[in-house]
Amino acid sequence: MQPKPVLLAFDTSAAHCAAALLFGDRVVTRVDPMAKGQAEHLMPMLEDVLSAQGLGWRDLDGIGVGVGPGNFTGIRIALSAARGLALGLGKPAIGVNGFDARAFGEALPYTATIPAPRDQSYVQHFTTEGPDSPLQIAEPALPQKPADDLIGAVARIAASRLHNEIQRPTPLYMRSADAAPPRDPAPLLLP
User: For the whole model, what pTM was predicted?
Assistant: First the structure.
C-alpha cells in the first residue's frame, strides 16, 4: 500500500484565490475572496498554507490545479503557477476541471453547474458511466457549493490521479477570450 500523498491544490478561476493542502487524512483549505490581484497573491498564500502545517515545497508529492471553466486570466494564472512549480520541484501537476470537483462525492446521476457570464450556468451531467452529455449553457445560474468544498475536492481528485499516467494540465475554456487584437498597427522596429 502506498503512503498517503501530500498534495497542494489551488484555483484562481473565479473571484478568489483558493488553496487546499491534503496530508494524511486531513484537508486544510483557505479561500481568499478577491476580484483581481490573484497573480500577486497566489504564491505568498501557498507559502502560508504550507508553513501553517509545518511543511515546505519539497514535502509535496504533487500539485493539483483547477483548470476551469471560469475567468480566462484566472485560469492562466493557476496553470502557469502549477506548471512552474511542477518543473521546479520535479513533481507532477494534475489538472481538475470544475465539473469533476462539483460532482465529487455526489450521488449519481448528478448535474454539475458552474456560473457563467450573463447569469447563466455551464452544465455537465454525470451518470454511473461518467460524464453523460456535452458541456452546455443553461439559464439561470444555479446555487453553488462553497469554494472551500470545491478546492478540497480538487485536492482529493488530484491525489486519486497522482499515480496514473499524468498529462500536463490544460485549460478548459467554454468560450473564446473576450480580448480583441489592437486596431492600431504594430510599431516599426528599427535595426
Answer: 0.90
